[in-house]
Structures are given as structure tokens and as C-alpha cells.
Amino acid sequence: MTAQLADSISFPRGPAWRNRIALAPLTNWQSHEDGTLGEDEYQFLTRRADGGFGLVMTCAAAVQKNGISFPGQLAVYADDHVDGLARLADGIRARGAVSAVQLQHAGSRSNPQISGEQAVSPFPYAKRNVRALTTAEVEQLIEDFVTAAVRCEKAGIDGIELHGAHGYMLCQFLNADENQRDDGFGGSYRNRTRIYRDIISGIRAATGPDFQLGVRLSPEKYAYGTGEALAFAEELLGGGQIDYLDMSLWDSFKLPDDDAYHPARLVDLFGRLDRGNGTRLGVAGHIFSAQDAQDCLDSGADFIFFGRGAILHHDMARRAIEEPAFVSRSFPVTRAYLAEQAVGPAFQTYLATGWKNYVAD
């Protein structure tokens, strides 16, 4: 029988989740300039735990200062960040949810005006004054991802997700057109995917047996083919090192850009991949209703992420479980409405300035 949204879900490591619904990692501008947890970010996340989500995940949290990409970004690059994360872990756990921090470096999409440092990437991008990482800097980046995960574990966070999607640093290593590094971190598929394996094995060696580890990938738009994305996803699912793979599909129900894979939708393609050792598959992208979410489970996903709907409804998880016909309301909405959903002023400003027709006033 196909899993239902209300079903609990277990993983090779770490705590089971009370249901199959996770909060997507959402850029929100709500923490402090030094990367410590802000009160509005705490309230936003714990309100979603109150709202019934099985997993509550933070926004992308910077593992190096020069990897910051937006104002008010949560960070995990210094020990000073641990206390806020500990408070967050306690708050989420007290409300019955499992916690995760998404670890990120923005690469060429970092913002030097915020960090005060030049942006770096696996390869140079002269138009944006981005320089290529040295091999020693790649090795330091791997170490800093691992150290950030250790800080999260020390804080009592249940696990982390590596942000390997959406064209940020790790995803930039996958770029088949531009990443022609000759130091073992570029060129072939094996070398372009190496940094993921090195970080994953480093985290596994440095954290305890109950620390949960996920990876986010995107299958299209970032200069590697659908075939490579499927191969890498299947490698991660079967490798026994991670607990879940998070496929950020943008639109879970669209046909792949590569028509060789038609008529399967993206959710179908990834949902039918083999898993090993109990590793789970989650999907995100255009899931706006209880029916959409159940469709993903019926298509082979083990759990789903709500993103935009979770901004609009702090209790979207609970409502999707209790109301099979539930459909998220749509943007635009007023700032007063967003405030009722524990979306703070900075997050409201981000939605108003970063997205067309999201905020009505």
C-alpha cells in the first residue's frame, strides 16, 4: 500500500519523523548580521513545528563568511553560532518535530557587499569578479562543511542537509561546461561529483551514529544532463552514506527538459530509482495541495517538502493531513496576513522585493 502523508517515516540514522511532510529550506533574511539566529527566524521555524511538520529545516546556512548570499542569513561558520542553534533545536523538539540545518556556500552567487570578501567558485567568472578556488581552498571548504555539521550536532540539531542544488557552490562543481579543473575536482563526472562524497564521508566520520544527513540536488538547468542527475541521485540513494536525498524539482509534475525521458514526469523519474539501506527520497517543487503531495508519494517519493504553501500557512502540514481537499491559498497576500503566519518584517520585505506579486501592500 502506498504511504500516506500522516504515516511516520524512519531513516537509517536519527529520529523518525511523525509524518511525511518536511518544511523546505526558505530564504528569509530574518537572522542577524553576524549569522546568529534571529528571533523572527526562531518564531517562523517553531511555528511550523507547531503546525505539524515532521521535519523543520532552516534556510541555507553559510559554512564560510565569504559564502553568504543574502542579508540576515543564518550561519554555522563560527562557534558563536551554536547557542542560537541549540535554542532552535530545543524549540523544534519541544513541538514534536525533527530539526535540520541546511548547509550552504553560495559560490559565485555570494554577495561581497555583505561578506566583505571576494566571491569564489570552482571556476572563474570574470564578469562578476569571481575567482577560482585553489585546491587548498577546496580542501578547506570540505573541512568547513564538516565542521559546520559538527557544530549543528553539538547544538542538538538532529541532522543537516547539504545544499547541492540551485546553482550554488556544490552545484557549480557539477557544471559539465565550465568545471574543467585538473586537480581531481573537475572534468569527468567522477571528479565533478567528488566534493559531495568527500564532504559526506567527512561528516560521517566526525559525527555520531544517530546524526541525520541529507543532500539536496536539482536535476535540470545547471549545465549537467538529466542522465547525469539520475545517475548521481541513484549513486547517493544506494551508497549507504546518506539518510535521504532531497530532489528540488522546481515543478515536480513537469516533463523533463530532455524528451528522451518522456512521458515520465520528473517526480516519476526520480521516484522509481532504487534505494539502498533504507535511504529515503523527498521531492520539492509546485506541491501546493494535499492531493499534489499524495500524488508524489503515489509516484514513489517517500516524503515531500512544502515551501511557498508553508509560508502562507504555518499549519499546512496539519491541514494537508486532516483535509484531503486542502489547497494552499495563493500570493499576493497582505503583510498583516503574513505576520499572522509568523513571517517577520524582513521576510516580508524579501517577498515584496524578490518576487513579483507576492505582497499586496
Give descriptors for this structure.
single chain, 361 residues, alpha/beta, TIM Barrel, 8-stranded parallel barrel, two-stranded parallel ribbon, 14 helices, 13% strand, globular
How would you sum up this structure in a few lines?
35% of the residues lie in helices and 13% in strands. The protein has 14 helices and 10 strands.
Count of distinct structural domains: 1
- Topology-level CATH name: TIM Barrel
Q: So what's the oligomer here?
A: single chain
Q: Which second-level CATH architecture applies? A: Alpha-Beta Barrel
Q: How many distinct beta strands?
A: 10
Radius of gyration: 19 Å
Q: How far is it from the N-terminal to the C-terminal residue, by CA?
A: 46 Å
- The mean pLDDT is 97
CATH class: Alpha Beta
Strand content bin: 5-15%
Q: Could you state the CATH homologous superfamily? A: Aldolase class I
Poorly predicted runs of 5 or more residues: none
Largest sheet: 8 strands, parallel, barrel
> Strand-and-helix sequence, N→C?
EHEHEHEEHEHHHEHEHEHEHHHH
What is the helix content? 25-40%
Number of helices: 14
The spatial strand order of the largest sheet comes to: 1-2-3-6-7-8-9-10
Shape: globular
Structural class: alpha/beta
Topology:
Blueprint: E1 21-23, H1 39-50, E2 55-62, H2 82-94, E3 98-104, H3 112-115, E4 120-121, E5 131-132, H4 135-155, E6 159-163, H5 169-173, H6 189-192, H7 194-206, E7 212-217, H8 226-238, E8 244-248, H9 266-271, E9 280-284, H10 290-298, E10 303-306, H11 308-312, H12 316-322, H13 335-340, H14 345-354
Parallel strand pairs: 1-2, 1-10, 2-3, 3-6, 4-5, 6-7, 7-8, 8-9, 9-10
Helix pairs in contact: 1-2, 2-4, 4-7
